Write a sequence for this structure.
């Protein structure tokens, strides 16, 4: 009998390595991996490019009607890239210009509704690992395994700095720290689906864990639930 498929959610603070872990788990389990943050980032890129006035609900509605998001597998990365209206924007959405606006745009109820609907559709068949901020609380409250990730702030700054400096060597630790603090604050204090640890989530603090160690811990949780479900 084939394994029963489950839904795994990974929520937590910015730059905790959620996507890295989610991708590794999905690959080991043969599940689909979805980086929900990429969806908010791609929407943000569209809003920046088209100078959408986010205070104008009609303009926001019109903009969303023109946004089409798709994920396509990129074998070179071993992960899916996001397409915005057919254009591969995976690299662009990681840049500071988007990072500095995304939390603000993700506070809009209509934007969240738009993204959540698509996320729920992607999880219909289960067999999915999705990372974000509200995946265990709002998108899939029924998920079998919910992980809440956290890590020391200095460690998160260093990790993000390394990543960003690959495309822009001028980025400094202070810039990254400011952006991270701002995003943490906005993500946790917004009215619509703020970042919260689901009551039934397991906490994974990876400050002092290697990627291999955290993978082993999380896969232990996942396999225990999958075996129980069979
Ligand atoms: O995971 P990330 O850093 O790529 O996410 C980018 C932003 O998108 C983050 O600052 C908050 C928002 N986000 C959200 O509000 N809800 C999600 N499920 C995922 C991301």
């Amino acid at each position: 009998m084939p394994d029963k498929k489950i839904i795994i959610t990974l929520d937590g603070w910015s730059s905790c390595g959620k996507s890295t872990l989610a991708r590794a788990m999905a690959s080991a389990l043969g599940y689909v991996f979805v980086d929900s943050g990429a969806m908010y980032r791609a929407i943000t890129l569209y809003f920046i490019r088209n100078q959408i006035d986010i205070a104008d609900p009609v303009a926001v509605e019109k903009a969303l009607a023109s946004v089409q998001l798709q994920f396509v597998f990129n074998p070179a990365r071993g992960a899916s890239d996001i397409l915005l209206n057919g254009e591969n924007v995976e690299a662009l959405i990681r840049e500071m210009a988007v990072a500095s606006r995304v939390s603000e745009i993700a506070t809009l109820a209509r934007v969240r509704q738009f993204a959540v609907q698509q996320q729920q559709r992607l999880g219909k068949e289960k067999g999915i690992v999705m990372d974000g901020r509200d995946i265990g609380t709002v998108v899939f409250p029924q998920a079998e395994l919910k992980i809440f990730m956290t890590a020391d702030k200095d460690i998160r700054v260093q990790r993000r700095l390394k990543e960003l400096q690959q495309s822009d060597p001028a980025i400094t630790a202070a810039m990254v720290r400011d952006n991270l603090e701002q995003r943490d604050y906005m993500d946790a204090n917004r009215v619509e689906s703020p970042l919260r640890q689901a009551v039934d989530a397991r906490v994974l603090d990876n400050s002092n864990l290697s990627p291999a160690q955290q993978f082993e811990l999380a896969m232990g949780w996942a396999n225990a639930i999958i075996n129980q479900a069979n």
